[in-house]
Design brief:
By secondary structure, the protein is an all-alpha fold. Among the domains are: 4-47 and 258-310, no CATH class; 322-470, no CATH class. It contains 23 helices and four strands. The strands form two sheets. Strands 1-2 form a two-stranded antiparallel sheet. A two-stranded antiparallel sheet has the order 3-4. A hairpin with a 4-residue loop joins strand 1 and strand 2. The longest helix is centred in the first third of the chain and has 28 residues, at 81-108. The protein starts with 10 loop residues before the first helix and ends in an 8-residue tail after the last helix.
Amino acid sequence: MASPNEIKWSSATAAHLLRRAGFGGRPEDAEGLVAAGLEGAVDRLLSQEERGLPLPPVTDPAEERRRRELRRALRSEEPAARREFGAYNRAMSETFEAMRAWWLQCMRADGAGVREKLTLFWHGHFATSQTKVRFNHLMLGQNETFRRLGTGPFGVLCAAMVRDPAMLVWLDGRQSQAKAPNENFSREILELFTLGEGHYTEEDIREAARCFTGWTVNPANGQSVFVPRRHDDGRKKLFGQAGKFGAEDAVEVICAQPRCAEFLAGKLWEFYAYPRPEPALVKSLAAHYRKTGLHTGELLRMIFTRPEFYSPRARATQVKSPVQWMVQAARETGRQLLPPGVALPLAAELGQNLFMPPSVKGWDGGTAWVNSATLIRRSNTALLFSTAAPPLPLEVQSLDTAAWAAVAPREVRADPVTLGRRLEEVFLAVPPAPATLQRLQAVLEHADFPCSDETVREASVVLLGSPEYNLC
């Protein structure tokens, strides 16, 4: 197995780690990781506690019951029923928008990089959408489960997901009972979440469906509940093992299959490093994953210390997702996120609505994120980050000045070469292409040096709007 000693640890490799493990950072953040050494840097990122996260919006646990009551009132043609029903739906829609804005703010928060990036991975892996679930409390609860359990043993997270209220609604698992087991629910668990297509039999699907019967959702409090009379308590045979299995037993059997570790290790590697990893690499990662009891945090530690993670195949070859693009731009410019009224429609236009993945397979990612329209939209939005996004709330006389002083401190403003080098280091994972370099030089050659905040802003907009900024 390749050794971490083969990695040339530097500010460039540390910056790569910051961009992939989380949502990027400043050159000074990378230098801090360089001083800690590779393994110390990875330890620091994985153990970093989230600080100052905003509180989530308040959701209604009895949302499903309340909507049922309002619908009954509509059918009875009570005079105020239509008005009350409309007001409640509008309030729930506003809460949903607040949830999406809240999660973006969590990703932007200091110390939130690795945990929130992994939460985003699990959201795409256990893809569940508000388009069908329709209950804010359930969607928010699932998100918090990803955050709470995501870095630990996968078996624990998976067991939570097969009885997760949002998942039970999304895959119709709450209707599954002994008389009519939901085989589609078990098929998705096996194919999309644990083993991958073709690594199970039709009998495994049928028997797993029997295991998952009996779980439903209480509309009065939004919690999952097990109803024994709806559960098939007979003997099942799952992947060659026999027993009177329930949902957690089935998850344990499934996660014990060697393919489970390979499937998840490969998928996590693709999310953090590059697509189509070498079979030998996947087997090595999977062996470590199994040895640690499918502990995802320990797998991430191995991923982030593998030489392949820092190889030319991995460096600056990943297209930023819309969320990565927005959050990283905010971090690097030292500003808050764009206002929700701008950020949320922008995410929708760019193809990544949080809490609304397009299908049970999640987002395709990679080059699917960009086309001629989205590239233009990203480029045009660069100007917004220097004008509409509020600077960080630092207690100084001029907030905007403080933000640009962090992007380009006084010592790098003496001449155009030094300033250009600094801005490339802040914003780009690859050297600027000739066209980008020409636009940057056009700004710098007309500026006076030592330069002003306005020059820093104009030059930053050039790099934020460049094609190269889409690479991570």
